[in-house]
Design a protein that fits this description.
Oligomer: single chain
Length: about 400
């Protein structure tokens, strides 16, 4: 069996290029910008569904920026969880996700309660449940339409934490991905709702393919990881085409299907090139800056952009309003990163990691039972041997990360 095989992770890993893949930051920003342009081009805030007839032929496909997000998550989350305990992995993810998310719920919820709404004025209980990021699991309406992807991410993180609990190795990753694929098929065949919620069928193909591409990046190409990339691509195409995408309405079923297949395939191709090191030379620092804007841009753009477009387009016209709205949401994203994420993320992570060992100071040492004195024996006194000296392990003794 795969899980019982020797630990390939103890072999030297292939880690080409820089320690941080800055091209991934660029791709994350491009994915977010694609989603922004899709929402801004299609929003009813313009007062018409055809505000940009030529541009919408391209921005329609910005919707698939979410697929690129999930593919990147599979790659990056496995990389970040490798060698970590479940607790430390959870601390890193919670501190990464929640500061900007809480800010978005408070700010956008406040705007909605005040009457500046997109389509729904939330109740107090809806706002409170949204603060947990678990609203989808409890059947509570998302405050923002973009929040639905966060549930997919949370379930994926929980699955990776389970993998981290048994120890992440190359072969355990293969077994994990294989089990995930088989269970997806069983859940679909049996129409098992609970199992589908656990396996997140929409995001799963991209998460699985992203994990496989990280194995390619770390250990070099071999058949099993490439098979999982191919499976993820096939299942992703099936999911994208089964829902009658908007491209069908714009271009007809034949051309629309070809375009959707092309976009999904391009997303996979770009991440394959990342995995095999083609973009390792892109090591510009400003790409990391773009990456820091991605998450707050994704969280805030829809509500803020809707209001700005609604207010400005009668005065400025469509094109100038679109440019102003895009620039404004990027500025908002920078403000959230600078004022919320940068100060709170490290403090929150440190507090969570301290909380993991909060019981250490309260565990009383085991009491040593009093022993009766040893009977005196005739002859010379015996001196007990000196304890063995304690030495710190040398660097070569430390376990290898794998």
């Amino acid at each position: 069996m795969l899980a019982a095989a020797p630990r390939i992770s103890d072999a030297p890993a292939n880690l080409p290029g820089p320690s941080r893949l800055r091209v991934v930051d660029l791709l994350r920003f491009c994915a977010a910008l694609g989603v922004v342009l899709f929402h801004f081009g299609e929003t009813r805030a313009w007062g018409t569904s055809n505000a940009f007839p030529a541009m919408s032929a391209v921005t329609t496909f910005g919707l698939y920026g979410v697929c690129l997000f999930f593919l990147i998550s599979g790659f990056v989350i496995l990389m970040s969880a490798w060698g970590q305990t479940p607790g430390h992995f959870a601390a890193s993810r919670i501190s990464r996700l929640f500061p900007a998310y809480w800010a978005s719920v408070l700010v956008l919820g406040g705007l909605a309660v005040g009457g500046l709404i997109t389509d729904h004025r939330p109740s107090l209980t809806e706002l409170l449940v949204n603060m947990t990021m678990l609203q989808h699991g409890f059947g509570v309406r998302d405050l923002e339409i973009v929040y639905w992807t966060l549930w997919q991410e949370l379930v994926f993180y929980a699955l990776i934490a389970c993998l981290a609990a048994v120890g992440i190795t190359y072969r355990r990753c293969l077994a994990f991905m294989g089990t995930w694929v088989i269970l997806l098929a069983i859940a679909d065949r049996a129409d098992a709702g609970l199992l589908k919620q656990l396996l997140v069928p929409f995001g799963a193909p991209y998460f699985i393919a992203g994990m496989a591409l990280y194995l390619v990046h770390r250990f070099g190409g071999s058949l099993f990881p490439w098979l999982f990339v191919a499976v993820g691509w096939a299942l992703g195409l099936h999911s994208a085409l089964a829902g009658e995408p908007a491209a069908f309405r714009k271009f007809g079923q034949a051309l629309g299907s070809a375009l959707v297949v092309g976009v999904i395939s391009l997303i996979f191709l770009v991440m394959i090139l990342v995995a095999v090191g083609v973009f390792d030379g892109l090591d510009w620092r400003w790409l990391t800056f773009l990456g820091t804007l991605t998450y707050p841009l994704y969280l805030f753009h829809h509500h803020v952009g809707f209001l700005l477009i609604q207010w400005l387009h009668p005065v400025l016209g469509n094109r100038l309003t679109l440019a102003v709205a895009v620039a404004a949401v990027v500025v908002v994203a920078y403000g959230v990163h600078r004022l919320v994420e940068r100060p709170l993320q490290p403090r929150m992570r440190a507090a969570l990691e301290r909380s993991l060992t909060a019981d250490a100071a309260r565990v009383a040492p085991p009491e040593t039972a009093a022993l009766p004195p040893a009977p005196s024996m005739p002859g010379p006194a015996l001196t007990p041997p000196a304890p063995y000296p304690r030495t710190a392990p040398e660097s070569g003794y430390l376990p290898r990360g794998g």
